[in-house]
Amino acid sequence: MLRSLLAFAILLCVTCYCQAGIIRGRITNERGEALPFATLFIKGTTQGTTTNADGQYHLELPDGAYTVVCQYIGYRKTEKSVTLSGTLQLDFQLQPVSMQIREVIVKGNGEDPAYAIIRQAIKKRPFYQQQVQEFTCNTYIKGMFKLRNVPERFFGQKVDKQDIGVDSTGRGIVFLSESLTKLSVKRPDKVKLQVLSSRQSGGGFGFSFPAYINFYDNNVSAVITQFSPRGYISPIADNALAYYKYHLEGVFTEDGYTVNKIQVIPKRKFEPLFSGYIFITDDNWRIHSANLLLTRDYQLELMDTLQIRQTHVPVDSAVWRMKDQLITISLKQFGFDMIGNFVNVYSNYDIHPNFPPKYFNNVLMKYDTAFNDKKIAYWDSIRPVPLEKEEVRDFHEKDSAAQARRDSAVSSHHLDSLRKHQPPVKLQQFFWGGVKHSYYFRRDSALPYHQLAMRPLLTQLEYNTVEGLVLSVEPSLTLDLPKDQDLKIAPFLRYGFSNTHLNAYTEITWNQESRLNHRYGSNTWKAAGGKRVSQFNKQEPIDPLTNEVYTLLLKENYMKLYENWFGSFSFRRNFESNAAVDVGFLYEDRIPLENTTDFVVFKNSSKAFLPNHPYELADVPFIRHQALIMNLNFSFQPGQRYIELPDRKVAIGAKYPRFEVGYTKGIHGWAGSDVDYDKWNAQVSDNMNFKLFGELRYRLAAGGFLNSKEAGIPDYQHFNGNQTFYNIRYLNSFQLAPYYKYSNIASFYTTLNLEHHFNGLLTNKIPLLNRLKWNLVAGTNAFYINSDNNYVEVFAGLENIFKLIRVDVIAGYQSKDATRIGVRAGFGGLLGGALFRRR
């Protein structure tokens, strides 16, 4: 009994000692209007909060005496001393700052006094950039996007408003997340993020990467680096005076500092520049706050506006750091009207963390074990920005719906419903759209399914001069197996109506996620066999559709084919580091083919189809023979960085190039194999972003035959030529070179593909092109075998046409042919480069 009373007394004392109170209230202006995302913090600390869109806030603190500081850009900072015990209502009504224009001596050239302030800030910029060599802080991030309008149809397809999460009027939140992340930084480039908690409305990881935008950097990455690889020029960059005009709107006094409100005005459109206001303190020339805007006129892509608002506060007597940051985004595209924001609240700064050795490693972001397993009470206790009413409703409704789906996912009723309500297969799907049917079943707590599918017949129709009209049938069966495994069985049937050949084979692929020495990776086993049609160049430099168009309309048959009975077996190991090893064996019984049809849409007696045997290799015989081939390949990228999840690491890239090496052996005598050769290859590739000066992409390769006693045309070293108007293999092709003219079995060759994407540099000064945001691209493709066998082409073009298209003009200098000039079109730019880039 005594022990119980003692324990109860200790618990009571601890409870009383740790008693926490809550300060809550609303921030308004002099007219009683809410001030959204105003800054509040406890004086002498970086502990604080930010108001929501309604100007409401709450702040949890231990009971005691505090001075609460409230500030908002354009309003006078206000302090209130309080004694907290329990819950306290504390409202603020902020008054606009009383701006004064200081008395200045205007120079003869009439220069605005803002320029002298900006020059001092530029001079002091490197000091503040390097003032803090290392620090840690906690970052609360809340991201929200909502639609205000949705079109009825998008590219001809009806928009399902319920499916995207909006109401019948096209309004509603489509993304909502919050997270708490610990940020650790050590200059010049060490960063580590520890995600303490994260959630997304309806389930998911949420957005946990703090957008720490630093205007002390010359080049500012404003969140959307992938959409604007050049970055943006800071208003206090070293060269800022060449890009901006400035106007001193006024000064005000705050905490003994004179703060200058300076309007930032871009000198020219179509440069990566901000507009808005930056506030600089006198004497120490530091950033007090900022309210800056990016628009489409200043190289903002896809979005209409992106606004960045920051407030800086003192961490100690000499150091100021960012307290909060609000990023507001709006866009109107294709009938969609969307707005959103990311609120970042920084707290608990430690500018002397004394990181232990090896604290910074190749893990950029690490998720705590229970990061997504937090209860509502936890979020209510750590959230510095109160949720708005619609956000509360969105979390509640979507989380409840997601939980209901999880609860019912493995129920018999749900299983029967999935089986019963699958849409019936329609006849037209066999010809267009494709067929899919799923077979659901129960396994432990999961609901896996097998899937039977078939590609549409009309999209499989081809035409070439060897087979004539070709019809292919490609069904597949994918089996979901236990322990993160799947098995795919895919038969292929192909019939040529002109040569009446039926080719059929089956490919079986087994994928397995695996752990080796506590490291995750994946294994892929693939076996195939039967009879098929192959291009002599296994990289397939021309696709069937392009060949079909040129054959039928222009009487140019570029695709060169042979038949082969084959059997193959390969294994690929993808490592956690994104390195990969490939081992494969291939047996082919190679059969030559001849043209069997000369049908064309437009008759042209002056032209004749070329033979199926590449005319450039007419002196190389191709008769029926057998080949047994072994392939070994290894690729890796040093310096790989990772996101570490509770159960695995995910590679996210590195600043170093990617390397690949390979070896191919033609094995003579085994299984009747006639080939006998040894072939090696190696390559290095990289994308290098020089910000304002553009992005350089390259691929440098070399290889050759160590032994070439017996090699068939499919074993030759082929370069990916291109004799059509269309090209997308920009870093693995030669845009004007013939397909087989330079094929060889030389002991050494080397190739270079290099292109520089100016990303608006130069074209932003050319009328019309700058408005259209069409960007210049230039480069060269070359290979060298010997003085008699080499090729160089140089090109320049425009990309980002309609965000998708790229057009190049090329001059090709060929050792075996006359110089030629050509034009090629493909995909490139903001969307085209991302969706269609091929190596």
Structural class: mainly beta
In whole angstroms, how far apart are the ends?
Answer: 77 Å
Low-confidence segments: 1-18
Instruction: Bin the strand percentage.
Output: over 45%
User: Helicity, in percent?
Assistant: 10-25%
Mean of pLDDT: 89
Secondary structure tally: strands: 44
Main sheet properties:
19 strands, antiparallel
Radius of gyration: 33 Å
Globally, the shape reads globular
Figure out the total of helices: 10
Any overview of this molecule?
- The chain is mainly beta and 839 residues long.
- It is 12% helix and 46% strand.
- It has 10 helices and 44 strands.
- It has a 19-stranded antiparallel β-sheet that branches. It has a 13-stranded mixed β-sheet with strand order 16-17-18-19-20-21-22-9-12-13-23-35-36, sandwiched between helices.
- It is globular, with a radius of gyration of 33 Å.
- Residues 1-18 have low confidence and may be disordered.
